[in-house]
Write the structure tokens for this entry.
Amino acid sequence: MSTENALSGFEALGLPSSVLATLASLDYLQPSPIQAQMIPLMLSGRDVIGQAQTGTGKTAAFALPLIARYAGINASHVQVLVLAPTRELALQVAEAFTRYAAGNPQMRVVSLCGGMDYRPQTKALRDGVQFVIGTPGRVIDHLNRGTLKLDQLECLVLDEADEMLRMGFIDDVEAVLAAMPDICQVALFSATMPVPIRKLAQKYLKNPEEITIKSKTETVAAIRQRYLFVPQREKLDALVRVLETEDYDAVLVFARTKESTTELADYLQRQNYRAVALNGDMAQAQREQTVEQLKNKRINILVATDVVARGLDVPRISHVINYDIPFDAETYVHRIGRTGRAGREGDAILFVTPKDKRLLQTIERVTRQKVEEMPVPMAADINAARERRLKEQLEAVLTKGKLEPFRSLLEQWQTTLGLDALDMAAAMAVVAQGDRPFHASDRPMAKIREQSAAGAGVKIEYRERPARRGEADRGERRVGKAPTPPESGMVRYRIAVGRKHGVKPSNIVGAIANEANINSQNIGRIDIFPEFSTVDLPQSMPSSSLQHLRTVWVSGQKLSIAPWSDKPPVASKPRRAKA
């Protein structure tokens, strides 16, 4: 048998011993399908197109061969640039590069992401780095400042290209592609291939090899999947109502950002729930301690991001609540897989706002399963659940029979004070309940069930539509129409950049989505005027994000975002800007 035939796993792909040793230490034994096909092509320098869903191992498919080719070279210029649509993904990719290059300690990598201090980034670029992983907006900023130079770039990777299109970054991506040298390897990865991405590949990639990995996304039959149709501003109240009415052992709540996990956990604690946040800002020892608390029943609710919840295996998690809907079906499947473990049944509940309908359709189409609609729990549902739980607690205590010394004490009071036994029992219940009303009211959500039925009853049609340039797949985002009030749950803001500065909706969407770490689908109406623009943002947006947006620059102008307190001037008739 030849040596070539004897090789298997990652050894057969042509990776050097330093990389193979790192993979062995990480217990990476067999390459995934996209890794097996993509690594040899990238090692050879070919332009490639990889079509695969999230969770198929595509980060290692491009990181491993690039580390193998460039990590051992003592170069002071940027050799590899990876573009990712969001800060979270860019940081994940940078972390993966560092982890896979453990055998090459001299390798230098920097993350260029929105919402982060420019100074460490600029210093790293000045000192010399080989690998740059960044978001389109921040990369363009560094190119314009002259702090990032791509004249000697040897490989450009576009990760999640369709997501960059959806978020309105396609113009920035094309600007980066235009700035690279004529001879430069390009690798494009995308879950889908909409027309603009296909055209981009035809324009900038040279005779690319295409690799398509069919998704095997499927959900576990033991998991009951339901969705809740609820306006953005009512989500917090809806979350508490769900927790009030569901019979759970432990709950894993998924939020989109680290800030959201902390805010949600704090809110639930104020509602007397034993809830704790789990996010990337916590030290590893603290994360492990939090998971142990969940396992040992010291806490019942964990609020986490996708990144830190990967690999979480706690059998007592009976419910997964997607407070923020995931961007893709693969992530949804990974999330709900945290329940229904060890042969048990599990429940997955998805919060869907009016702007999230399209994502719900995508999840149902890709998983080939309908997600069952559930109504928002109302006061009658909550009260019935509270009464049932109180009855169960009483029955449990009566069954145990450990009623002393209270029985003797109550008999004594009944004789000496002449009290009715039923009145005494009710008084004890009042003492135990405290100031919190036992029965709930429907005042905060009087019309939610009505809205839920109206909104969720829309017929779902599974049709793909290629996104238009600069569009974030939102029919709501229009430019130049007569002013209308913001939608429910949205707040209108004024930003100090307008038509005379050459701004486009895609520039505004891209900056806000990336710098404030907000889903582009949650960015509402944009109106562009000569001197300024207005944009509708969620009412629940953290104040820290708004504070940061004041310092962000778009089209050469600082946003200086501030609440909008007046109507746009009638004399200014803004024309529709091209997205």
Observations:
- The two ends are 60 Å apart (CA to CA).
- Residues 1-6, 444-482, 568-579 have pLDDT under 50 and may be disordered.
- Residues 223-379 form a domain with the Rossmann fold fold (CATH 3.40.50.300).
